[in-house]
Amino acid sequence: FSKVKEAMDKMFAELSKQQKEEYEKKEACTKEIDLTEDEYKVASNTKEDLEHKLQSLINELETLAKDIEALKAEEGELEVSLKEAGEQRKSENEVYQQSVTDQRATINILNKALKRLQMFYTPKLAEIQAHSQEQKPGEAVSERPTSGKDYSKSAGAGGVLQLLAKIISNAESAEAELEKDEQHSQALYSELVTSTKATIEANRAAQAEKMELSAETAAAKSETEGALLATNQDLEKLGELLAAHHMDCDWLLKYFDLRQQARAEEMDAITDAKAVLSGSDFGK
Questions:
Q1: Tally of CB atoms within 10 A around 44
Q2: Measured in whole angstroms, how far is the alpha carbon of residue 202 from the centre of its chain?
Q3: Long-range CB contacts (< 8 A, 24+ apart) of 239-246?
Q4: Assessment of whether the complete model's pTM goes beyond 0.90
Q5: Beta strands in 90-232 (DSSP E)
Q6: 118: Cα within 13 Å, side-chain hemisphere
Q7: For residue 57, how many other CB atoms are within 10 A of its CB?
C-alpha cells in the first residue's frame, strides 16, 4: 500500500496547500475590499464637501456681482444728484445776484430821491433865518400885503421823507436777508458736496474691495472645480477597482466556509484512510 499511501500524502499536501492559499486569498480579498471601500468612502465624502464648497462659492460670486452692480448704480445716482444740486445752486445764485443788483439799484434811486427832497425841504436853518429876517438898521418895516397868500412848503413833506426813509430801510433789510439766505444756501450746498463726495469715495472703495474679493472667490472656485474633477476621476478608478475585487473575490468569500469545511473533511477522510491502511496487516 505504499504507493496508495504516497498518493494519499500527495492529495493531503495538495489539499493543505489549497486550504492555505484559499485562506490567504480570502484574507487578501477582505483586506483589499475593505481598504478600497474605505478609500471610496473618503473620496465620496471629499466629493460631497467639494460640491458644497463649490455651490457656496458660486452663490458668493452671484451675491458679490449683485452688490457691485448695486454700488455702481448708487454711485451713478449720487453723481447725478451732485450734478443736479450744482445746477440748482448755480440757478439760485444767478437769481440771488440779479435780485441783489435790482435791490441795490432800487436803493440807489430811492437814496437819490431822498437827498433831493431833503435838499429842498430841509435847508440849513441859518440860511432860512437870514433870508426871512434880513433888514437894515433904522429901515422902516414894510407893511404886509393886503392881498394874496403867503407861499409855504408842503406840510406833508415830512411824511414823504419818512416814508422814503422807511422804504430804503426795508430795501436794505431785504438785501441783507437775501445775502443771509444765499450764505445759508451756499453752506448747505457745500455740506452736501462734501458729504456726497465722501459717500462716492466710500462707494468706490467698497466696489474695489468686493471686486478683489470676487477675484479671489473666482480663483477658489476654479481650484475647487479642479479638485472636484480629480476626485471624480479617483472615484471612478476606485469604483472600477472595487468592482474588480468583487468579481475576483465574491464567489470565494461567499463559499469560503463551505469550501474550507469540505476540504477539511476530505483531509480528515484521507488521514483516516491512511491510518486504516497503515494499521492493516494482510501479510499474516
A1: 14
A2: 11
A3: 239/40, 241/36, 242/33, 242/36, 242/37, 242/40, 245/29, 245/32, 245/33, 245/36, 246/33
A4: no
A5: none
A6: 11
A7: 19
Amino acid at the residue 122: T
Give the residue carrying C-alpha cell 435791490. Answer: 103
User: What whole-number distance in Å separates Cα of residue 240 and Cα of residue 100?
Assistant: 93
Spatial separation of the C-alpha atoms in residues 242 and 245, rounded to whole Å: 5
Task: Tell me which residue has cell 494482510.
Answer: 282
Percent over 70 (pLDDT), the chain: 85
Given pLDDT bands bounded at 50, 70 and 90, which one contains residue 157? low
Q: DSSP for 187-204?
A: HHHHHHHHHHHHHHHHHH
Report how far residue 11's alpha carbon sits from residue 271's, in angstroms, rounded to the nearest whole number. Answer: 10
Category of 145 on φ-ψ map: left (φ > 0), alpha (ψ -120 to 50) or beta = beta
DSSP structure class, residue 151: -
Could you give the CA distance from residue 96 to residue 93 in angstroms, rounded to a whole number?
A: 5
pLDDT, greater one: 196 or 149: 196
SS3 30: helix
The length of the chain in residues reads 284
What are the percentages of helix, strand and coil residues in the chain, rounded to 5? 90, 0, 10
- Contact between 22 and 256 (Cβ < 8 Å): yes
pLDDT (tens digit, 9 = 90+) per residue, 35-48?
Answer: 999 999 999 999 99
